[in-house]
Structure formats: C-alpha cells, structure tokens
Amino acid sequence: MRITRIDAIEVLDSRGNPTVEAVLQLEDGSEGRAITPSGASTGANEATELRDGDPHRYGGKGVQKAVGHVRGEIAAALVGKDAGEQRELDQRLRELDGTPNKSRLGANAILAVSIAYARAMAASRKLPLYRHLGGDEATVLPVPCLNVINGGRHADNTVDFQEFKIVPHHAASFAESIRMGEEVFHALKKLLHEQGLSTGVGDEGGFAPNLHSNEQAVELILKAIEAAGYKPGDDVALALDPAASEMWHHGRYRFFKSDQHECDSAAMTALWEDWLARYPVVLLEDPLAEYDWEGWSALTLRLGGRVELVGDDIFCTNPDLLRRGIREGVANSILLKPNQIGTVTETMDCAAEAKAAGYGCYVSHRSGETEDTFIADLVVALGCGHIKTGSGCRGERTAKFNRLLRIEHELGPRARFAGRGAFVR
Length: 425
Ligand code: PGA
Ligand code: ZN
Description:
The protein is of the alpha/beta class. It has helices spanning 64-78, 86-97, 107-124, 129-134, 174-194, 214-227, 265-278, 293-303, 319-327, 338-341, 344-356, 374-382, 395-411; strands at residues 3-12, 18-26, 31-35, 140-141, 143-144, 146-150, 163-167, 237-241, 248-249, 252-254, 262-263, 281-285, 308-311, 333-336, 360-364, 386-388, 416-417. Strand 1 and strand 2 (18-26) form a beta hairpin. Helix 7 (265-278) runs parallel beside helix 8 and helix 12 (374-382) packs across helix 13. Bound molecules: 2-phosphoglycolic acid and zinc ion. 2-phosphoglycolic acid (PGA) binds next to loops.
C-alpha cells in the first residue's frame, strides 16, 4: 500500500502551547491523523521535542520546524513509497532522523507520522486501531487511575508530590470503574468546597488546593472515597506519582513547594514505607529521582514485593534504560509514554521487553495533552491493564475515557475488565 500524501500543521495542546498534527493518506484513500502530546516534568533521557526557540512566536515554543520536517524531508522520503509494516515505517523514520534521540527531525514530528500511519493502516484494514495493533486478543480494558489531586510541577499550590490518584479496581467493567471514579471525584469536590479549599483544577484535571501537608491530600481522598459509598482499598485504592526527579536537589530531596526541607534517599524510602503501611496504595511511580539508581535498587528490594513500582523518568520508555533497570533490580513496572521514545514500534517493543522480564506496563498520557486518543487504543492493544490519563474532568482527559467506553461497548461480551489483577505485586 503506497503512501500518497503526508502533511502537518501546528495545532494546540491543552496548555495552549503549539504541537504537531500530522495527516497521512494511503493510495486506497484511507487516512490517519495524529497529534503529539507534551510533558512538563520530563525525564532527562526523553526523545527530543523540537521547538523553534523563536521568542516572537508562542514564547519560543512554536513547532514550525518540526511541522516543516514532516511536510518536507519526511514526506519527500515516504510519499509514493510502500511503507510496509509499522515496524518498517518506524525504522525508516529513525534512519531519516539519524540521531539516537530523534533530535534532528524532532520526536514530536516523528511520533505524529508514526501514529498517523498506524491509523491509516487500521482504516485500510477496516479494523479498529486497538485490534490492528494488538490482534484478536486485544480485549482487556484497563483500570483507569484518576489523578484527582495535582501538585508538584502540575499546579500552583503548596503540594510537593505531583499526582494523587484513585484506582477504582473493584468493578465489573471499565464503564463501572469510571462511574466509581467520577463519583469519588465529585465527592472530593464537595469535601474541598465544604472545607473552604479551592476546587480549581490543575493541568491534568485534578484539584489543586493549597494544603498544609502532602498527607492531607491522601486523607481528603480517603474521606471522599467513603463519602461516595466505597471502601478505601477494597473498592477504590490509591496510586501515587510524586515525580521525585523534580525534588532532586544536589543529591537530596527537597520539598520544594511546602516547607523547603530536604532529606536523603534512605529517608525518602522510609517515607514511602510508612505511607504503604498506613494507606491502601497499590502503585507508586517515581518514588525516587531518575539520577538515584542506587536508591531505586534499594527501594525496590525493600518495597517491590508489596506494591507496583513504576519507573517513569528513570526509564523514559527507553529499552536500553529498561534493560539497565532489569539488571540492577530497579522498579517492577514501566510507564509507557509514546512521545518519550518517539515511535509506535519502539513503545510496543519496550512493553514486550518489560512483560518478558515480568515487569508491569502502565500506559500514560502527558500533562500537555490533546483530543488525540491513541493511548486508549494502545493500552487495549497491549492488554497491560492500567492507564493514567488524567482526572475526572477536562476534555483532553475524558476523550481517552470516552474512547475506552466505546471500545468496551464495541467488544461487547468479549470485553474483559482488568480489575485488581492488573497491578504487579
Ligand atoms: P508530564 O507528567 O507529562 O508532565 O511529564 C506526567 C508524569 O510525570 O507522569
Ligand atoms: Zn511520572
């Protein structure tokens, strides 16, 4: 199947920053379109998001160069050619770029083309995207982990840790799980309002009140779970992403938004051990910084049998870093963010390597998102059972939930909800 057209434009993400949208057509008229998301608390080893740096446009954040690369070099190399399987297309894109981190053409340009191709091929095969990527066995719907209180770099408040998530895992279906999540989300809003706390939301749609401690966020959420009629832990558990790389300060951890105190890696690990004893946490992401490999190994040894430990910044969806992690006993699960690595194939390869090593895979959005719902199809294609794609509100987040609701409906009796079993223990 030959590619007949590749085009791109600058569109907007949920923060109002520009990003790349690519569109790709095949000779049978099938079309695919995709938009690249953008992170804020990014890992140091992520593939490069190419920005123009022209202070006169979007404060330097324009992506006209990346868009130009899609329309120019990428289109010139691919239009008129039969691109073959997704793997071949992605390999061709990597070769064209020629750098290890996709810095020449930009991972934002490359990923948009990679996903657009997957969509066009799915359309050509008359298959839903999850089935095109995952085959007939792609029938598992994920547990949604809703980030209901935002802190860290995602909100202007006094909370150091970035994400406080609810995990409605005791449900019969994805639809039921989302309903439970939303009920807790609304109960939390009521609780915050009653206590005179702000109900404005942060980047990912979670509430972002000023609190007197990080623990207070957990306590409020536990109250909200009960107020919504659920049992904390049994019905709705907790997941956390403190995004500890953002706290890293000269080899220590600084509570940079509250009281500015610092502690070492061992003390941070002790803090998590204490929290795990007190709260029903089933997943802990980036409990330590991406620079703290030794600390991560020690933490994994101590806590890995009790909770899913997800490496985000430390792995950056990168197979090389994942392999090092497996060798050094770091984490027991990996966060999958397609734009950290830059192609569909590499994202899926990373998941396959993780699974082969007994690691979990946790599919994720970025804090700067769009209406693109690729990750909803991806999580079903991979069957990896859990996703984080924001809180209970904001269209760019609910777009993914809505896509998953449609997939569950479409699969009918074949759909299976991952439930509690989705988490590595
Ligand atoms: P980001 O945050 O998209 O801003 O990197 C998400 C995360 O840290 O998991
Ligand atoms: Zn993270």
